[in-house]
Each structure stands twice: as structure tokens, then as C-alpha cells.
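Here is a protein:
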Amino acid sequence: MWSFFSRDPAKDFSYEIGEPISSSDDRSIWTLHRAKKKGSAGGEDVSVFVFECKSGNEHLLNIARSAVKRLKTLRHPSILAYLDSFETNKVIYLATERVESLYSRLTRKSDNDDEFKKELYFSWGIFQITRALNFLNNDANLRHNNVNLWTVFVNEESGEWKLGGVEYMTAVDIIYNILPSTFQAYYPPDVKENVKPATKCSVDMWGLGCLIWETYNGPLNSNLQLKVIDKIPKQLQVIYRELTSNNAEGRPNPADVIARCRSNGGFFKNELVDALLFLEEIQMKERGEKGRFFSQLAGQLESFPDGVGRYKILPQLLAAFEFGDAGSAVLPPLLQLGCQLPDAEYQRRVVPCVVKLFTSNDRATRLRLLQQLDRFVDHLQPATVNEAIFPQVAKGFLDTNAAIREQTIKSVVHLAPKLDYNNLNVETLRYFAKLQSKDEHGGIRTNTTVCLGKIAQHLHPQIRQKVLIGAFIRGTRDPFPPARAASILALAATQQYFLLQEVANRILPALCPLTTDVDKGVRDNAFRTIRGFLSKLERVSEDPGLRESMEADVNTATPSLSNAAATWAGWAVTAVTAKFYRSQSDTPKSSNAHNTSRILLNKPASLEQASSSQSSASTTATTSSATSMTSLDHDHEHDLQNATNANSDCDWDWDADNWGDMEQQPSTVLEHGSSNISPSSHSPKPNDQWISLEEKPEEEAAQNVEDKNESSDIGWEDSEFQPLEDFQPLEHTQTENIESTNTISTKLKEARRKREEGKLARQKQMEAKRDNKITEQMLLLRNSNLNNYII
């Protein structure tokens, strides 16, 4: 009756035992099963060795109990890891890490596997078993007695080889006991039953030789097969012959095997073994050594065997980051291996490391993170980005280091899809406004414009409509030619977000002056973009029904794929070349590029054809040959300050995100641009007043040009023109009275009279100036002749 209420003691075991896997048949007293830990989330996968107690096998029962006791006390990375055990009067359970037999692993490996990876894998596996035997023989004074293909197991995840089969393990000073007949092929030729071996490691070294042969040839059936060494690598053949020598005393110690094979050109000297050993000893390495190692590791991971990176190297990297001082150097290989993880595991293991790195104040760490952002941003949750990462990234917008600022700008392209309304439409645009107007590096100003065009599709429609046109028109007045070109391209790439009315009233008037830009690339882009916008307006003029479809994306949060900014040009300038461009274009000369009509008239014809970057480059090259680098940097900073001051004089409140005010101040920008022109570069030299007769026609032409220039300065003023708003339109209706018509006609005549008077006044003023200049030249000529006569 009580047996009905009795429960199976095996149910107290912590693991749920599954189906058996391929075993070594009669070569082991155990049956290997897959198992899962009870009560754990998802169930931790383990392996359970099962021994069934039967009547008449008390000898085997003692061996199984001895194996459990022995394995429980052995802790070594290359020895099978003990987890738990349980014994009843019917069965013995031994739980270990999840493994399979080496025979099963080698059987699955096909001949088509990469030979290089296979060679690395075998070298690492044989090294692990050799290291385990070195620990047993030299440190623990134990003798395994049964090293072969059937007593080595492989971790199913990492692929590491683990020494098991400790059923016949004894102390090194114990006499040798003959193994069961199933292991007859592994008997050393020099040992006899009840006789002490010649050395403490001779038996296990013979077994290591047998294992090496089986690794390359398969199961050993007779020790006579050990003489066939064709498949064994040449690097290993010398050691192998010593291991399988009939002379027991001539077999090397496992420590000697490791030392010889780890020397240059040895079998254990390769990238995989070096990397794994370095990671095991990383806590004892210097910081410089760690940095060099991690920089090399990222390029080696592709050649490592499958599973080693994810299950062996990645945990070591995470531990090195969390408990060591590896810092950002660990990031490239960490992210490369992290891509192999499922998303849930990535969130649990890698994301916390990334978030922790973003809090670092080290510039190298922040720069490396921003450069690698595209490799892990897809795994980040929006909440993590907005709460933990973006506040740290935003600090880089105002960093004093130009490389940090540039990479921070680029990072927004990857972060934008995950940013909330405030971080994207308020905070980011506020930083962009300041960078585009006041940053001293032309490359950074350029990249700010580029990035704004790339993230336009993620902006809120109302913010987008308010900001884009003002920001891009602001960029068209930048003294840096690539910045102007980027602004033109941005207008073209985001054309689907602009109302046609804005195209006609704001965009085209801003683009037209760029058709006379000093830079050929800017002019080409301006013409191309203008033609595109005009074509769009013309199509709507021909078919007004197209207006709705062309303005469909203006107020939509998700634009059509055909208009996506992803097809736009890449980054215009990088931080590496920002200094080079600064010396070329970020100068007061190029800041006047928009006063084209005035500057080109005072330049020689050869300079009119050259771009601003070319002329500046030649100037820089000439200057650098006569000055030191210190003075050049000082000059560049001075020029940049002038350009920045010109930009800051514009009536633009970037703190208020008022990007829309920029296009309303063209006259201010031009005035400051012209004020930066050096007088010495355009005013005539004293000797220029002396002109030969042959040069007189050219001088007269130049004089006429100068007069025209002066006339434009004097006469083309807005005050001389009556605004159109002052005139009433003439409406021919039946109710129109004669008095209103006479009044309008009188106003028109009055305006015409004023224009004629102004024209006459200008002509008189021009003639007076011309007469004064002729008189001055004649006086100078007379004085010169008198001086020559006196001399």
C-alpha cells in the first residue's frame, strides 16, 4: 500500500533528462543524454551521463562512483566541467557542460570544410588535451591511463576539447592496471600489469600520440597503424614519433610538448591559439598590449572556426570590458561577434556594454563608438536611445575637438529613426543651427547640411516645412564652396517637401545668384537644380492637376520611397580633410564669392576661370614655403574668425530655431563679405598709374568698367524706385471715373520724371568723376616729367 504513495527518488535530480545521443557503444560504462535544468527560464542545456545499476556489475558501479568523485574534485579549463550528480539504488546521474564525443564531432566534419580553419581547430583541440595532461601529470600527480578518441569530449557551442573518461585515473606512483579489452589498441608496449610505468607521464604521452593519429585518421584498431603518418602535419611529425616511441623514457613530458610546439613555427603557434591564450591571461597584460591585441583581433575573427568566436572569445571580451581596463579598444571585435547573437541575447549582453561606454569622458572611446554606431544601432531599443544614449551623444555637438563634432553629426543619420519628437525636432535642430552658422570648420558646416537633408524624412512635417528651406538657403551663402554645393544638392534631394509657391518665391531666387559662383562645381549644381525646379513648375503650369501629387509629401510623416533622401550624395567633406579645405576656402577671399559681379571685374582674366579652391591652394602653397606651420595656423584661425564674424552678423537667432530668417538677410551677408576684401588685393598700386601708349586702350576699357562699377554703386539704389505697391492697378470697368484715371496718370508721369532726373544727376556725377581722374593723371604725369628733368 505504501508503495503506491512512494515517489521516484530520481525526481529530486535538478535536471530533466532527455533522449540519449550517439554513444561510444561498449567503450564506456556511461550513456550520454541531453538534458535541461529544471525551473530555469528557457532551460539551460547540459549533458547527463547515466549509469544503470544492475546486479552483477558491482565492479563497474565502483568505477562509476570513483569517476564521479574524481571529476567533482578536478577543476581545469581543459577538463570536462562537473555540474551535479545524483545516485539511487538503480541509477547514477552525472551532469556536465553540454558536450558531445569527439568521435561524433569529427564524423560530422566533411572533407569540404575549410582546410585552414580545420587545421586551426585541430591545433587548438590537441593543445587543450596536452594542457590537461600537463596539469594532471605535473601539478596534480595523477595519471589518466586512458587517453584516446573516446575519452575526449567537445563542447557543442564553443567547440573546445575537454578531457573526460576519468574512470581509470590513478596517482602517478600507482602500478598500472590493464584496461578492458575494448581499449586493447591503446595499450602502451612498454607497460605490464601490476608494474609501475617508467615515468609518470609515459602512459599518457602514448595516449596523446594515439589521439593525434585518430584526429587525422579516425578510430585506431591496432597500434601497428600508428606508423602511418602521411596525414599528420609535418610540424607535428617529430613530436608524434617521440610520443609513440617504444622507449618509454624517451617520450617527452607534456610541458616540453607545449613549449616546443609553441615556439616559432610550431604546431601550436598560430593566430587562434595566440588569441585564446591572450584572452585567458588578459588581466595580467599591459594596457598597450591589450590595445594592440584588440586592434588585430577584429581582422582575425573571420578565419577562426565556427562557434569559437561567439561562445569562447565573446564571453572573454565581455569579461575583459566589465572587470578590466580594456575600454573602447574592445569595441570592434565585440560588435563584430555580437552580430552573431540573437536579438534578445544581444540586448542582454552587448547593449549594457555599449551604454556604459557612451558615458565615458574619454574622447577616443566616444569617437570609436560614433564610428561604429552603424554596426549596433539596429539592435538598440528607442527607449534606450532616447534616455541613455542620445543625451551622451549630444555632448559631442559642442565638443572642442572637430573630429568628435563631425562624427556626432554623422551619427544622427543612424539615430534619427529612433529619436522621439523632442530629441529630433528640437534638440538636434538647435545644435545643427549653431553648427551650420558658427562652426569654424567648413567641412563640419557642410556635413551639417548634408545630414539635415538625410534626416529630412524623419522630421515632423510642420518642423520640416519651417526649417529646411531656411537652412539650405543659409548654406548657399557659406564661404566654403563644398558647403554651398551641399546646400544646392540638399534642396534638390528634398524637393518633395516644398510647396510650389515656396519654390517660386524663395528657392529659385536664392539659387539664381549661384549661377555666377566662382566655383565651377557650385555653378553646375545650381544650373542643374534650377532646371529641375523650373521643369517641375512648368509641368504644373501645363497641367494644374499635378500640383496635388507633387505636394503630396509636404505634410506626410512617411514620404514615398521614390523621393527618399537615401539616393542623395554622400558626405561632402570629412574631418580628416577639413583642415585642408580650411586653408583653401575658409578665408575672407572666398567669403566674397557671392559678390561675383563686383569681384570678377577687378580680377585678371586668368583668375576668373579658376575656382576658388584652386587659387587658394596655390596661394597656400606659396605662403607655406616662406612661413612656418605655426604662422599658417594662426592665419587660418584669423581668416576663419573673420568668416565666422560675417556669419554671426546675420540676423539669425539659432537658439530659437529660427532657420527661416536666414534668407531674409542677403544684403547684410553681402555687405560683410565685401568688407572683408583686403584693400591691397584690389586697390591699384602707385606704379599702376603710369601707363604706356600701347596700354592706353586697355586702360580705357578698364576705366569704363570701373565707371560702370561706380555707377552701379551710386545709381542702383532702391530709394530711387517707387514701390509697385504705391501704384493702384488700372481696372477697365464701366464704373471707372475720369478723375481716378487722371490721378493715376499723374503719378506715373511724376515717377517717370523722377527717374529721368535721377539719371541725369548720375550722368553728371559720373562725368565729374571722370574729369577729376583725368586731371589727376595729367598732374601725376607732369610731376613725373619734372622729376625726370631735374634728375
Summary: The domain at 15-100 is CATH 3.30.200.20 (Phosphorylase Kinase; domain 1). The longest strand covers residues 45-52. Confidence is low (pLDDT under 50) at residues 1-6, 561-658, 660-738. Strands lie at 15-20, 31-37, 45-52, 82-87, 91-96, 99-101, 142-143, 152-155, 161-163, 170-171.
